[in-house]
Amino acid sequence: MKKLRTIFMGTPDFAVACLQTLIDRDDVEVVGVVTQPDRPRGRGQKLMPSPVKVLAQNYSLPILQPTRLKNDNVIDQLSALKPDLIVVAAFGQILPQAVLDLPPLGCINVHASLLPRYRGAAPIEWCLINGETTTGITTMMMNAGLDTGDMLVKREVSIHDEMILPELYEALVDCSVEALNETLDRIIAGTLERVKQDDSQSNYAPMIKKDTGQIDWNNSARNIHNLVRGLHGRAYAVINDQKFKIWRTRIATNPNVELVEGENDCGKVLCADHRGLFVRTGEGIVEILELQAPNSKRMSATDYLKGHSIGR
């Protein structure tokens, strides 16, 4: 049986399971792995390899780490590998047309949304931030657009009200393996069907920036809660002139605290004691369950309040 000569392109943890899937299949030969260059991380800013690079090294696979794919030397290196197929998952660079044209079977992307919804860099986060109840994985045939290619295989994942980013991430990783395996099975069997996307149903999931996480207390309790669970430690708020990372919240449906009436008291701390930390929003009350003060560690709000006061 002729194996599919496959190049894999990916970078973060999310992509590792897809690369492992390719490695484990008897009908696929991974002839090269392309990932982002090593980046400085941690307090010491030491250069660290991507999770995909670490896995590729474990299997002694050829590794390329170009800063830009749109480079004749890089394209020549990829061409020399004679790929039948390129599989992409959370790579972090846009593929130029010269790369898209290399493999006779095309370039397959494993995208973490139900396309055409949530095209872009951060679909997992934005699904939670926007309060979606369903998302999933779509494999697609890549073209020059941003996640606009024909859809191949879809797998759905349900999102419950309290699901946080790591939980959804894990569910989607499992889902990506199923979708990729089915896509490869259909390619090999010659039964792959392509479905065009309806561009009118699309929306964009841009990269998460620092200010994306700033909590606006004028927002509703539901929207604030969704922001916190979608960013998992990257949401932050100023409370009593101190900036806190907010790790976990819940909507206080029957809080045992006084709801102070007034037009301008969104962000007012209604309670900060053994009962918990409750803050008024533009609509409803949020209970902050876990937070992180500057130069401190993550902890429950009740533990923080044992040694610190937050004035009302």
Could you characterize the architecture of this molecule?
This protein is 27% helix and 28% strand. Strand 14 and strand 15 (276-280) form a beta hairpin. By secondary structure, it is of the alpha/beta class. It has 2 domains: 4-205, Formyl transferase, N-terminal domain (Rossmann fold, 3-Layer(aba) Sandwich), CATH 3.40.50; 210-307, Methionyl-tRNA Fmet Formyltransferase, Chain A, domain 2 (Roll), CATH 3.10.25.10. The protein is built from 8 helices and 17 strands. The mean pLDDT is 94. The chain has helices spanning 13-24, 51-58, 72-80, 97-100, 123-129, 165-189, 221-231, 301-307; strands at 4-10, 28-34, 39-41, 46-48, 63-64, 85-89, 107-111, 119-120, 134-141, 151-158, 204-205, 235-239, 242-251, 269-273, 276-280, 285-292, 299-300. The protein has a 7-stranded mixed β-sheet.
* Global morphology: elongated
Low-confidence stretches: none
Find the CATH topology of the largest domain: Rossmann fold
Please provide the count of β strands.
17
Q: Determine Rg (CA atoms, Å).
A: 23 Å
Query: What is the mean predicted local confidence, pLDDT?
Result: 94
Assembly category: single chain
Give a short account of the largest sheet.
7 strands, mixed
**SSE string, helices as H and strands as E:** EHEEEHEHEHEEHEEHEHEEEEEEH
The CATH homology group name of the largest domain: Formyl transferase, N-terminal domain
Number of H- or I-type helical stretches: 8
As for the number of domains, it is 2
Helix-strand makeup class = alpha/beta
